[in-house]
Design goal:
454 residues, five-stranded antiparallel β-sheet, binds fe (ii) ion, mainly beta, Neuraminidase, 3% helix
Length: 454
Amino acid sequence: MTDTASHTFLEGNFAPVDTEVTAWDLPVRGALPSDLNGTYVRNGPNPVAPDPANYHWFIGEGMLHGVRISEGKAQWYRNRWVRSPKVAAMQGREPVARQEGGFFAGLGNTNVVAQAGTLLALTEGSLPYRIDGELETVGETNFGGVLPYGVNAHPKFDPVTGNMHVMSYHFLDALLGYHEIDTEGHLVRTELLPTGKPIMAHDMALTSSTVVAFDLPVIFDLEMAAARRAMPFRWDDDYVPRVGLMPRSGTAEDTVWIEVESCYVFHPLNAYDDGDVVVVDVARHPSMFRADLDDEGDGSPSLVRWRLNRVTGSFSSEVIDDRAQEFPRINERFTGIPHRFGYTAEIGVSRMGGGADLTTSIFKHDLKAGTSEVHNMGRGRTGGEFVFVPAGDGVNEDDGWLMGFVYDAATDRSELVVLDATDLGAAPVAVVELPVRVPAGFHGNWVDHTALHD
Ligand SMILES: [Fe+2]
């Protein structure tokens, strides 16, 4: 590894780990719920020989961290790099077989989901990597279709059909791709939606009737690309921010575009139909990449509710909670339909590197009652996204658990923390002790054991 002590995103718990570990029969404080049978997997950057002069958190090679849970036991922890080209070269292994598509070979560093019996490690601009149940990289996939821009890393899963809906964007063309992939893993639909300029569109939203596309002012910058900047995107004050509402029963030509407030959204919480209105809850950043890619002067993200009327074109925005928060998640059985509860992590990106004086809280928002609950990790303990896992016999929307990795600066190790979503303020239900630290990362998911065809 090169000198990693000269960049915010290479220090503290942002620093990469340099070994792949397999640890069995992990110690558990408390009691893991007996009906949890599957694997929590989380993705994040773990750069190979990064250049501190041209590094950004978004461009490190992906590493998956997984904890297998069954019958109340934590059977194993594994961390494995996603075998992208630079990783394969570093490991002296053959690169995985490429498939046609994608703007470049992916880093596989942003998210990990299960579809059609396999895990997928995703990064925008590229094809997903197929990953097996022990986190080994198998190959790429283009879902048997044409995906010149790959797909982004935030698919939405229709809870009725199980189909995967995902966007893509291009670095040179002013358009967004919308794609639907069925439960057999086949690309069954693509629509191309024109945008104002080539933009970065990190995520999307989905309602029962509508695909929600974000056309916001983070644009591709050719000069930055020519200068070989790692992240050639910048804020554009002159760009008209819009949201596109495409009927799922229609085509791109049927999209209704509505001008919205100037801001950036990486992640919506959820969206749903309310008559002619599409309601979209988002983590709203005042702007993004305005001055410098590492600059946090853009301000903190808040949880905000948007209402977009597809008939009148009207737009309204209401702050739900102005505390700094990101990584919004719901009970995904409610994807596209009205949700009552949302879960977010209190965030300041620089704080995710951890430290003795830092801490993270997880918020539970009751959007019906207008209240919130907090779980604080304790001093020196920091984390990121917490995933909602519905209880197998759950009746209510919040019957289930929240889980995520927490880094403890005092021990320089991490834990998988499991919280009861119905009693967020209580002590964790269970804490799985890991023998290593898990670097700060992006997104994970709970993968039920029935979701993978091994
Ligand atoms: Fe994301």
